Amino acid sequence: AGGFGTKLNQEDAAFTGMIPGVLKKNVIHAGNAALSGACMLLFDDELRKKVQTLSRNVKNINLAQEDSFQESYIRSLNFPEIF
Questions:
Q1: How far is CA 44 from the centre of its chain?
Q2: What is the pLDDT of residue 83?
Q3: Distance CA 68, CA 54 (A)
Q4: Cα-flanking dihedrals φ and ψ of residue 73, to 5°?
Q5: 0.70 exceeded by the pTM?
Q6: Can you state the angle between helices 45-55 and 34-43, rounded to 10 degrees?
Q7: d(CA 57, CA 2)
Q8: CA 49, CA 14: separation in Å to the nearest integer?
């Protein structure tokens, strides 16, 4: 979703490990979905409860601190003369 997600290439995202390779064919670009999601949570009590339950199991991963991501990202850049 958003500007980043709209331009995201699912093949590249799978190659770098951003998403599991088995999911790359299931990527759907949602555009700017923040407002729609906020409205859904504002008006749907049951959905809000589900999201609150799910949010307790979320793990934040700071990609800037993951050496393996940095290496994959750099390898995926289009600088063939360097590699």
A1: 24
A2: 47
A3: 27
A4: -60, -50
A5: no
A6: 110
A7: 24
A8: 31
